[in-house]
Design goal:
The complex is a heterodimer of chains A (324) and B (324). Chain A has 13 helices and 2 strands. By secondary structure, chain A is mainly α. Chain A has a two-stranded antiparallel sheet. In chain A, strand 1 and strand 2 form a beta hairpin. Chain B folds into 2 domains: 144 residues, 3-Layer(aba) Sandwich (Rossmann fold), CATH 3.40.50.2300; 138 residues, Response regulator (Rossmann fold), CATH 3.40.50. In chain B, the strands form 2 sheets. Chain B has a 6-stranded parallel beta sheet with strand order 2-1-3-4-5-11, sandwiched between helices. Chain B has a 6-stranded mixed beta sheet with strand order 7-6-8-9-10-12, sandwiched between helices. The longest helix of chain B has 21 residues. The chains are: A mainly alpha (324), B alpha/beta (324). Chains A and B meet through helix 2, helix 5, helix 10 and helix 12 of A and helix 1, strand 2, helix 3 and helix 4 of B.
Chain lengths: 324, 324
């Protein structure tokens, strides 16, 4: 129980060794940098989703929320001919607001978050397309790369660092920083205890005076923040945003959290586990490409490897519990 | 937390797993890419979504050229722009000799194609990106101009005496599909024009949505779909709705000629995808062995080519073999 990420760590080592053996290009530092980049794009929302799942809730709208944030920031800046930071800030407010709304609806109605956020998932998806078409007359936003503030925003959200010939994306550093923050938040009493309590034993948590509402709404807002952050990365890495993207990504975040030791029932998990889960996911998706396997089987291999890691995880957990 | 939510999560996960299996439908392309061989290695990276017959034909062309030129072909695909860019980065990391890529989402791919150029890897563009391929520094473009093709189809419909045309897009928010529908509208003007979005990965819903539209507006007398499988489904939808609307489609597949011969389908606008795959690989091989560049800086058009009753006999055998 003390270390939910032990299984994930063993899984990460195994997956790394496996692709190191079967895919020669996987051994290069530049490939490792690409793997870390992909892992970070999944890993940043996965951290927030893991915290939410520890708190006993789901968010299915996180994948499209990434695209919503990017679209909003881009369109606000372009239509108002404003400094792009105006759009970035407004988009952050909207993303936090959307998270708060999800949380409020879950608390207020008592309907499972799985259903509430399923609704917001579809609504955001429709809004992305309809809103973009309404404002720009097209299905993608116009390029904002020549606007004021773009260069500074790009430096923060989407720059490359040159480390002795290997270029490392800045999102990897942000990912590790957020992971450190999440670890600190989860381990620090009383806030971390509250999260575990509302997920593991909600009734007794309420009874002992844990502010369940504030904790849950805060967790949904954290997911909103993470979606916003990745949305900003996409916007400043690619200049324009396609309104139809993002669907299905929410499951990758949940998979990363679960592989990293989160329980679907809440009350267990860790930030380090979510990092390892995203890393396993990134290594698997990229490793298959580096190995040159037939892409028709791609999803099958991803599913099989992830299932293997989850089984390993469960086995390690049983073994630990038996020893304890 | 409670069992009902847990089981609903599992049920949804199972349903998703099933849905993604059936979306893979068809048996094309199960073998081929990635055989070891002497000579150069070419990566072909497209925006193919799972389960579209169109890309089987592209891959057949690419594999034929690869076999003839003794090129090792690595095929990979992802409809998400950022993910496709990562696949290009994977190819660069793997030190391939040349890259063939589709530019459905040019902004997402431009930065990584710049990296390919810096790494000295020649690039050709196929299928999508006729307006942007030159800016990326690519050597050649093999494909069609979707806007021009749409206009031609629209003019033909007007000349055939069509009064009310319905354009059915199966991938909401995709730039090429928008260009085709917009081209149809321009060529067909001032005739009455409507656009319908369907969920391309869900055929039963395509059929019922088209049927519902035809029932709702009986004045529609020509349905134009943007992909061959959807045209064949639209035939069933018209039958189901008791509509007198005729059906035509962009692109072709092995079932299309029989439908044209029987009169169920008016015409198919073929962009000859086999040529796109074949010429892209062959052009890269010619570039490496002889320094050739095809196209002289202008796009090489592989279509459009109208398949109708006048020429279907000639085409049918090729279509059955999966190359038209």
């Amino acid at each position: 129980m003390a270390t939910p990420e032990t299984g994930a760590l063993a899984g990460a080592v195994l997956v790394y060794l496996f692709f190191f053996a079967v895919a020669p290009p996987f051994r290069d530092l530049s490939s490792l940098s690409t793997v870390l980049y992909v892992s970070s794009i999944y890993g940043i929302p996965a951290l927030a989703v893991a915290m939410l799942m520890i708190g006993g809730e789901f968010d299915l709208s996180s994948g499209v929320a990434v695209v919503s944030s990017a679209l909003l920031a881009s369109m606000v800046s372009y239509e108002l001919t404003a400094n792009v930071w105006v759009g970035v800030a407004l988009s952050l407010v909207a993303a936090l607001g959307m998270g708060a709304l999800n949380g409020y609806l879950v608390i207020r109605t008592g309907i499972p978050s799985f259903l509430v956020t399923l609704g917001s998932f579809f609504m955001l998806g429709g809004l992305n397309l309809a809103g973009t078409r309404l404002v720009t007359g097209s299905v993608a936003t116009p390029s904002i790369s020549d606007m004021d503030g773009f260069a500074s925003a790009q430096a923060i959200f989407a720059s490359n660092l040159d480390l002795g010939g290997v270029s490392l994306r800045i999102t990897v550093l942000w990912w590790l920083l957020f992971a450190a923050l999440a670890t600190w938040a989860l381990r620090r009493a009383p806030f971390g205890n509250w999260i575990f309590a509302v997920g593991g034993a909600p009734l007794s948590a309420r009874a002992v005076g844990v502010p369940v509402r504030r904790v849950k709404i805060g967790l949904f807002m954290t997911v909103g923040f993470a979606a916003w952050f990745v949305g900003m990365h996409q916007l400043f890495a690619f200049d324009t945003v396609q309104s139809g993207e993002g669907v299905g990504k929410e499951f990758y975040y949940i998979i990363a959290a679960v592989v990293g030791g989160c329980l679907l029932t809440g009350g267990q998990g860790s930030a380090v586990g979510a990092v390892l889960g995203a890393l396993i996911f990134g290594m698997t998706t990229q490793g298959i490409v580096y190995a040159g396997w037939n892409p028709d089987w791609f999803k099958f291999f991803v599913g099989a490897l992830l299932l293997g890691v989850i089984l390993l995880n469960a086995g390690v957990r049983r073994w630990q519990e038996a020893r304890a | 937390m409670d069992r009902s939510r847990r089981s609903s999560v599992l049920a949804l996960a199972a349903a998703l797993a099933l849905a993604s299996c059936s979306a893979k439908g068809g048996k094309g392309g199960a073998d081929g890419a990635g055989q070891a061989g002497p000579g150069m290695m070419v990566a072909m990276i497209t925006h193919q979504a799972p389960g579209d017959t169109f890309w089987d034909i592209v891959r057949k062309g690419a594999e034929a050229a690869a076999a003839k030129d003794k090129v090792t072909l690595r095929y990979a695909n992802d409809p998400d722009g950022g993910a496709q860019a990562t696949l290009v980065q994977n190819a660069i990391d793997s030190r391939v000799d040349a890259i063939a890529v589709t530019l459905a989402k040019p902004a997402a791919l431009a930065p990584v194609l710049r990296k390919a150029r810096e790494a000295g890897i020649p690039v050709v563009v196929l299928n999508a990106g006729i307006d942007q391929w030159k800016d990326t520094g690519a050597l050649s473009f093999f494909g069609t101009d979707d806007g021009v093709a749409g206009e031609g189809a629209g003019r033909r419909a007007a000349a055939d005496g069509v009064k009310h045309l319905l354009c059915v897009s199966h991938e909401q928010g995709q730039v090429q599909q928008e260009a085709r529908c917009d081209g149809l509208r321009r060529g067909f003007a001032p005739g009455r024009f409507d656009k319908l979005y369907v969920i391309g990965t869900d055929m039963p819903s395509v059929r019922s949505t088209v049927a519902a539209k035809l029932r709702q507006d009986p004045s529609i007398d020509l349905v134009v779909t943007l992909g061959a499988p959807y045209g064949l489904t639209a035939i069933e939808a018209a039958r189901e709705a008791g509509s007198r609307a005729k059906i035509a489609t962009f692109d072709s597949n092995p079932q299309v000629p029989a439908a044209i011969r029987s009169g169920a389908l008016q015409w198919a606008l073929d962009q000859q995808p086999y040529l796109q795959g074949y010429l892209a690989v062959d052009a890269l091989w010619l570039q490496k062995t002889n320094g050739h560049v095809i196209g002289g800086g202008a796009p090489v058009l592989t279509g459009p080519y109208f398949i109708d009753r006048s020429n279907v006999d000639r085409i049918e055998a090729f279509a059955k073999a999966g190359i038209r």
